[in-house]
Amino acid sequence: MKPRAVILLGAPGAGKGTQARQAAQRFGMPHISTGDMLREAVKRGTPAGKAAQGLIDAGGLVPDEVVYGIVEERLSLPDCAKGFILDGFPRTLAQARFLDRLLEKQNRWEPLALNIQVDQELLIKRAAGRLTCSLGGEIYNTYFKPPKKEGVCDVDGGALIHRSDDNEETIRQRQAAYQKQTEPLIDYYRHRPYFHSVDGNAEPEAIARQIWAFIEDHDHLQVSGGDRTAAAQRTDGKRDSGRDA
Ligand code: AMP
Prior knowledge:
Blueprint: E1 4-9, H1 16-27, E2 31-33, H2 34-44, H3 47-58, H4 64-75, E3 83-87, H5 93-105, E4 112-117, H6 120-128, E5 130-133, E6 139-141, E7 160-161, H7 168-182, H8 184-190, E8 195-199, H9 204-217, H10 229-232
Parallel strand pairs: 1-3, 1-4, 2-3, 4-8
Antiparallel strand pairs: 5-6, 5-7
Helix pairs in contact: 1-9, 2-3
The structure holds adenosine monophosphate.
């Protein structure tokens, strides 16, 4: 059976990180966030990190070639053998074409592309209010999902961090970069067999149910145990009908 890639599309603040994390746990696949990998590279001071730092802080995109290197290396690791969930990649048409070539080279199925569609006002609040656990990566929001104790993760007690690029000015730049460079990807994937757009204005649990249902409908993915009942409570009903033979 060929392994599958899942792509999450959506503007900054759409909830890609939260959803990718949960879907990765549910399906037992790695969650691959280019934003996380680039931030880690910045921390470690690698050449990719040095190229990325100023651009991340300014809310712009890191050059494609820098991202290609880290993505290709990551996708060739053994934990990606059965499939993976991409969060924040691809972000340009050139990156989408690069990914197509890479998936073909790795003999994988056509990717599943999910677009999380969210109204502009909500996007700003989701990004500006975001807090991330420095230990386990759990995501909180000062407006919608505050931790029980300020600054501390409910799950593992890690310190909660507010990303330096989650301030209003940089968020607006990131939204502009999204509209110019990333939004055209919706059309790129819309005409392919496995595209689904979900209403990202809903509660995170409802969004997750739509995402899981779409993934399970294309069940070449291996589900690594866990509770499948939530996925049975499907809320969408307007799902892509494409299946591969
Ligand atoms: P994210 O964590 O996905 O919001 O990404 C944070 C920042 O990392 C973005 O604003 C970009 O500066 C950079 N970045 C992440 N992924 C990519 C990508 N695929 N291409 C270019 N830049 C990226």
